[in-house]
Amino acid sequence: MSKSPSHAASDRRQWARQVEKHCGDRGLQLTPLRRQVLAILARAPAPLGAYAIIEALSRDQGKPVAPPTVYRTLEFFLDNGFLHKVESRNVYAPCEHFGHRHDGVLLICRRCGRTEEVESSRIGRLLHETAVKAGFSAQSQVVEVAGLCEICGAAAA
């Protein structure tokens, strides 16, 4: 079920606070740049691409920002499980269930671009079993499902 825009914004702010707490609990350093990128992701209504983040960061800082610094920051968030890369759209979405290994299913709205993450151990097991039967050793898996969120679906009806 989709969330209202104000509920989603509240969820993103809560996500950013959880990232900060998780980093503090585990001794992971949130540099000023990482905090700025975290704030940009938290205030975005939908997942962002690296260049959208670079543009926002450049605006916030009042000067050009080098892409490699942003890519390193995104890599930090990916490596620590705070973000998912939505491969089909080349954007980054907050991971709503970080702190433990899980197999995510990302529901992606084709109209507004919002994503919602759903945990499904059943789908994870099925994908793992399918890979094993094919002799494949999966290293990560995220299922992307494109469609319309509840709000956009209602507007289209």
Strands, helices and their partners?
Layout: H1 5-26, H2 32-43, H3 50-61, H4 67-79, E1 83-86, E2 91-94, E3 104-109, E4 115-119, H5 121-133, E5 142-147, H6 150-156
Helix pairs in contact: 1-2, 3-4
Could you characterize what this model shows?
The chain is an alpha+beta fold. The chain has a single domain, classed as Winged helix-like DNA-binding domain superfamily/Winged helix DNA-binding domain (Arc Repressor Mutant, subunit A, Orthogonal Bundle), CATH 1.10.10.10. The protein is 50% helix and 16% strand. The protein is built from 6 helices and 5 strands. It has a 3-stranded mixed β-sheet with strand order 4-3-5. A two-stranded antiparallel sheet has the order 1-2. α1 runs antiparallel to α2 and α3 packs across α4. The longest helix has 22 residues. The radius of gyration is 17 Å and the shape is globular. It starts with a helix and ends with a helix. The N terminus is likely disordered.
Keywords for this entry:
157 residues, three-stranded mixed β-sheet, globular, disordered N terminus
Could you write a compact summary of the structure shown?
50% of the residues lie in helices and 16% in strands. With 157 residues, it is α+β, with helices and mostly antiparallel strands. The protein has one domain (5-156): Winged helix-like DNA-binding domain superfamily/Winged helix DNA-binding domain (Arc Repressor Mutant, subunit A, Orthogonal Bundle).
